[in-house]
Amino acid sequence: MIIKNIITSIACLLTYSIAFSQSGKVMESVKFQSNLMGKEVKYTIYLPPDYETSARRYPVVYLLHGYTDDDTGWLQFGEAPYIADEAIANREIPPMIIVMPDGGVTWYVNDKSGKNPYADMFVEEFIPFIDKTYRTRAAREFRGISGLSMGGYGSLHMAMRNPDLFTACVAFSSGVLTDMEIEKMDDDSFENWFGILYGSGLKGKDRLTDLYKSFNPLDLLDSQDLDKLKSVDWYLDCGDDDFLFRGNSALHVKMRNLEIPHEYRVRDGGHSWSYWRTGLKEGLKFIGKNFHR
Predict the structure, then answer these.
(1) Which residues contact 204 (CB under 8 A, 6 or more apart)?
(2) What is the model's pLDDT at position 20?
(3) Neighbours of 57 (CB within 10 A)
(4) Which of 133, 168, 270, 292 has a CB 3.0–4.6 Å from the CB of 287, allowing a cystine?
(5) Residue 19: which of 49, 57, 46, 42 has the closest Cα?
(6) How many CA within 13 A on the CB side of residue 188?
(7) What is the model's pLDDT at position 211?
(8) What is the rounded distance in angstroms from the CA atom of residue 129 to the CA atom of residue 34?
(9) Beta pairing partners, 61
């Protein structure tokens, strides 16, 4: 019995040691100085388990948080590092760097005032900074983007506006709204969510400004080069109880009509972290397959 207990204890220690050795490194709320924004922008980054023991370069996934969250959302509530560790250990995804920037409540767009050009900062400063600072594979075929809710919206417009930068996009419960939803939104909600970005005091169809359309995924499907849109691998995932079902469904239908290949998932669930956590691994697998040859 004593020998059996000793063997069991050793086995547990070995299992713990192996699990620990397969854990990636997380650096939380690192600061990056943006000249375009005129301030520091925080980001949290996940480095795969063998990052510090190898000299290789890694593909990158940019993982965007939702409204009122910050760069730690996917870390604290989404359990992204644990999900990535397990998927890498099981060889379900290739080792990858995951970058989680702080987008505040910007919807990752350029605002009307010009004081917070987040989209320009992301493309012109942040991605080059990440490629320079970490051992990334700095090419389109090794770069993906994903996000939830506001971050799903951000991932879509980033990839649609910059198809030369991303090989794949995975949008969870993306904050895409139909024109009718925007027009009929109550004034307080519009002001809280979009007024500071697109213009305060707008009502009805006046809310559908050129600036708004330049970032709205449903409009970008019309304004962007169709062949370039088709060059990106798209994955949409929205729960059957999610209040954003109309916009996500409309996006799926429009992409089908335009014959843009994409995956569309409707799982059981609503607008919640339990939904996004359970979907993240499949999203990373979808992006990760593009990193293979």
Answers:
(1) 183
(2) 41
(3) 15
(4) 168
(5) 49
(6) 0
(7) 98
(8) 10
(9) 98, 144
pLDDT score at 36: 98
Residues of the chain with pLDDT under 50: 1-20
- What per-residue confidence (pLDDT) applies to 9? 40
Q: Are 285 and 228 in contact (CB under 8 A)?
A: no
DSSP designation for 70: -
pLDDT value for 29:
97
Q: What is the DSSP string of 170-217?
A: EEES-----HHHHHHS-HHHHIIIIIHHH-TT--GGGGS-HHHHTT-H
Q: What is the pLDDT of residue 271?
A: 98
Q: What pLDDT is stored for residue 22 in this prediction?
A: 79
User: CB–CB of 135/51 below 8 Å?
Assistant: yes
Q: What is the DSSP letter of 51?
A: G
- DSSP 8-state secondary structure symbol assigned to residue 24: P
- The answer to whether the beta carbons of residues 74 and 43 sit under 8 Å apart is no
Domain boundaries, the chain: 23-176+216-291
Q: List pLDDT tens digits, range 160-201.
A: 999 999 999 999 999 999 999 999 999 999 999 999 999 999
Q: 23-176+216-291 is classed in which CATH architecture?
A: 3-Layer(aba) Sandwich (3.40)
Rounded Cα–Cα distance for residues 37 and 115 (Å): 7
CA distances from 162 to 98, 143, 152 (A): 19, 12, 15
Residue 52 confidence (pLDDT) = 94
Contact 126, 41 (CB under 8 A): yes
- Helix 80-89 vs helix 273-288: crossing angle, to nearest 10: 40
Q: Are the CB atoms for 37 and 260 separated by under 8 Å?
A: no
